[in-house]
Task: inverse folding
């Protein structure tokens, strides 16, 4: 393991956001919030990560105000008196420990299974009612419903700002609602919300604009996106840098401050003839700061985590080198931080002998 990790511990500042270092806890759904309310145990869980030296915490996905936004009653919500009181407490605890925190704003769209979700009598919603390419199980969203959902994201951001959060992240990745618009495999619309890359991006663009209009010019907006989908791990929104630029430019123009580029392994090049990963390309094409993520500090990728798989540790030398070169600005850490709240301080202090393997059992508790 490397001893020169200075680049990870340089402060970061962009518009309304200042962070003490470059480490961001990646959003991880935990389902420890009964009735959608994050209680004291959730606050303690995030506080321990801030105490352990993590500069920015991005919370687990937290659902906007729509009855079919969630797929479980234990996923926290980001609307309503009780959930927002819970979040205020989470924010207070994280700030007291010297960290910054943003909620991940989420609507699961067609990924919801009505039979196990709250309001089982209601159908799931998506741009074309497709649960996966070719499999239609609901009616497409109407234009009026789409406008309501955009408003729902904006109201969640307003509530988040009131609760003291340091910005918001829009979950535009992994085949959930926003990504169901992005991806032609789940978006077969022929109106202004589907078809061309620009039309498929319009839902996110309008969400970003609505959040910006409802908050203020400096309120940080992060957009998380991914090429891969839970419906198809090999799917890609853009197969060339030109197409990626076509995808990203309207989102950057709409007001995204930071792009969070979700990949399984940060060391994999995104396109041929260049070492740049997805975060590297996104920064190069938009000029905006980016977050990389995917197997930081670990050797096995996270798809195994849902099957309870363990993962050995991995050195971060190549990560630090890329950060030093300016390929990306921040580093998202998922399972390593789920396993060990002190991960960031241990990396800073070169406590190699204390670094823990990721254990599949870590998902069972909120330790
Ligand atoms: C248990 C678990 C829950 C996750 N939940 C979310 C989520 O709510 N939102 C999201 O965007 N990604 C989610 N992810 C993906 C992580 O944010 C991250 O991108 C992924 O774990 C790769 O990082 P890692 O290799 O450091 O774990 C989850 C991952 C895990 C392991």
Result:
């Amino acid at each position: 393991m490397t001893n020169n990790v200075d680049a990870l511990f340089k402060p970061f500042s962009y518009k309304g956001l200042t962070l003490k270092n470059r480490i961001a806890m990646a959003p991880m759904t935990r389902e420890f919030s009964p009735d959608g309310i994050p209680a004291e145990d959730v606050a303690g869980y995030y506080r321990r990560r801030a105490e352990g030296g993590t500069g920015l915490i991005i919370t687990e996905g937290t659902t906007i105000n729509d009855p079919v936004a969630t797929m479980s009653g234990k996923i926290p919500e980001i609307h309503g008196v009780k959930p927002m009181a819970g979040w205020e407490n989470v924010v207070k605890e994280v700030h007291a420990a010297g960290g910054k925190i943003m909620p991940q704003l989420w609507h699961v769209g067609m990924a919801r299974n009505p039979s196990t979700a709250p309001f089982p009598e209601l159908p799931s919603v998506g741009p074309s009612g497709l649960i996966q390419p070719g499999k239609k199980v609901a009616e497409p969203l109407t234009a009026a419903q789409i406008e309501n959902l955009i408003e729902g994201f904006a109201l969640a951001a307003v509530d988040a700002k009131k609760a003291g959060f340091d910005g918001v992240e829009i979950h535009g990745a992994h085949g959930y609602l926003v990504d169901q618009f992005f991806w032609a495999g789940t978006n077969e619309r022929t109106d202004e919300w589907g078809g061309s890359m620009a039309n498929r991006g319009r839902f996110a663009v309008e969400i970003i604009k609505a959040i910006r209009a409802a908050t203020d010019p400096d309120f940080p907006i992060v957009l998380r996106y991914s090429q891969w989908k839970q419906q198809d791990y090999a799917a890609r929104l853009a197969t060339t840098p030109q197409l990626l630029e076509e995808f990203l430019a309207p989102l950057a123009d709409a007001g995204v401050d930071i792009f969070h580029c979700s990949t399984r392994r940060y060391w994999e090049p995104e396109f041929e003839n260049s070492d740049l990963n997805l975060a590297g390309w996104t920064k190069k094409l938009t000029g905006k700061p980016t977050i990389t993520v995917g197997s930081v500090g670990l050797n096995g990728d996270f798809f195994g985590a849902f099957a309870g798989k363990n993962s050995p540790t991995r050195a971060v030398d190549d990560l630090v080198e890329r950060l030093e070169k300016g390929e990306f600005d921040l580093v998202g850490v998922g399972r390593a931080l789920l396993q060990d709240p002190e991960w960031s301080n241990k990396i800073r202090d070169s406590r190699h002998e204390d670094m823990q393997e990721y254990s599949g059992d870590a998902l069972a508790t909120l330790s």
Q: What stands out?
A: The two ends are 26 Å apart (CA to CA). The domain at 6-364 is CATH 3.20.20.70 (TIM Barrel). The chain is about 30% helix and 15% strand. The mean pLDDT is 96.
